[in-house]
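Quick illustration, no need to memorize.
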Amino acid sequence: MSSKALRLGTRRSRLAMAQSGQVADAVSQVTGRPVELVEITTYGDTSREHLAQIGGTGVFVTALRDALLRGEVDFAVHSLKDLPTAQPEGLTLAAVPEREDPRDVIVARDALKFTDLPRGARIGTGSPRRTAQLNSYARSHGLDIRTVPIRGNVDTRIGYVRNGELDAVVLAAAGLNRIGRSDEVTDFLSVDTVLPAPGQGALAIECAADNADLVAALGALDDPFTRAAVTAERSLLAALEAGCSAPVGALADLVGDGQVVQEMRLRGIVGTTDGSRTVQLSTTGPVPETYDQAMALGRELAAEMLAQGAAGLMGERAQ
């Protein structure tokens, strides 16, 4: 490989720039080449519609992928949860680095925990998945909350709490960690309360499939356990025929005894946004050693969820 700078395509948001900067440093270390960030504006960054209205799937990704295919950048960094499950021809996921904390978190007024919010508390989120699970939890635990659809970057969302417009907002722990604002979290939501989005907390490093040298170099950043986990989660999402904005939560984690990893557990949930009906199931099996095994784990759980009526809970996005 030459010593010429590699061009990393990234969204312009503070979070995207932060996580791309971290990847750039790691890529420089493994390749010995400088990496320059190329800022690209995506449809999801410019549209003011709620993500559920514009479909969610691919709105933060398409412009980056187009730049890759045109050769304007050498590789791109995505939040994995934003990636459509279908891989486009000509591109490959060269690396999925070790995952950050996959949980959702609450940033609430007066440092309140989720279960301590007052009756009628207004909680902001742009995610049907979060809305469905928060409302389901509230129904089953006698809480009285109001979910409010919001958009915007981290500053905008937390600003709704600071100015008193909302009592709390829900964000991803990974994003706040990556921009150094985890001290603003007032409550971490257990995955038993809210299952994260498939791939949440993980990054995807994508490049042209025919650039063998770069594919090999970026592969040094790949974490096999993270890749197996997110592959299973995304397989579940694909088998449910649901997009990034559908109310689907999934998490694959490793089950072990002490230092020895023995199995992988995959959990999935689908629910109506009012929380009145959910289908939540899990399966446990050997840790997948191949892509096909990870895909099979997701498909098997999806089939069980569909048999329990999951498709009817996703509305038009299940089509």
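The mean pLDDT is 90.
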